[in-house]
Amino acid sequence: MEGKRVSESQVVLSQMMQPEHANILGNVHGGWIMKLIDEAGAIVASRHARKPVVTVVVDSIRFCAPVHVGDLVHVRARLTQVWRTSMEVEVEVEAEALLTGERRVTSTAYLVYVALDEAGRPTPVPPLLLVGEEERRRAEEAERRRVERLARRATEDAPRAR
Ligand SMILES: CC(C)(COP(=O)(O)OP(=O)(O)OC[C@H]1O[C@@H](n2cnc3c(N)ncnc32)[C@H](O)[C@@H]1OP(=O)(O)O)[C@@H](O)C(=O)NCCC(=O)NCCS
Hints:
Layout: E1 4-5, E2 11-16, H1 30-49, E3 53-63, E4 72-82, E5 86-96, E6 103-115, E7 128-129, H2 132-157
Parallel strand pairs: 1-7
Antiparallel strand pairs: 2-4, 3-6, 4-5, 5-6
Residues 54-57, 83-86, 112, 114, 122, 149-150, 153 line the site of coenzyme A.
């Protein structure tokens, strides 16, 4: 299978935050931001694999600042590393205040997707061609997160003593 670059699948989704996205404090509901994060991540993974994908892990999701109704939200997503059938996507959410142009990062997250074949089984994805120091550094960090996730999975899947 031919390799593909990070730039071939990365995406930025932009959306105006409307009153129906608000929580009781008047800021945007965290669940709505999570939906946008997963949507952007799934687009990136499907673009790379050109197969249907499912989310298998969402971790390290951080909400560092509130998003306000009326903000234009930009959701940037790109691959950090891919393995045999799974892919890690890094997502950054930035809120832009339309009247001032002020931008601030409000959330970051890492998600893992798995590509599926017609029978719904995990299927191989193209290798990721890393370009430059920055992409190689992100890929190394992704490898470390994978080790932690797989260790966690092994513990969670282990039969529990009753
Ligand atoms: C995704 C799914 C098909 C994987 O099935 P599975 O039996 O775990 O399959 P495997 O053990 O072969 O794992 C498939 C890949 O996922 C990775 N994976 C599975 N669980 C993982 C975890 N907790 N952390 C990191 N990677 C994980 C495996 O490492 C493997 O990747 P690799 O081939 O690149 O090494 C299955 O877990 C599933 O259907 N989950 C539900 C998905 C879903 O409904 N998501 C929400 C809606 S989109």
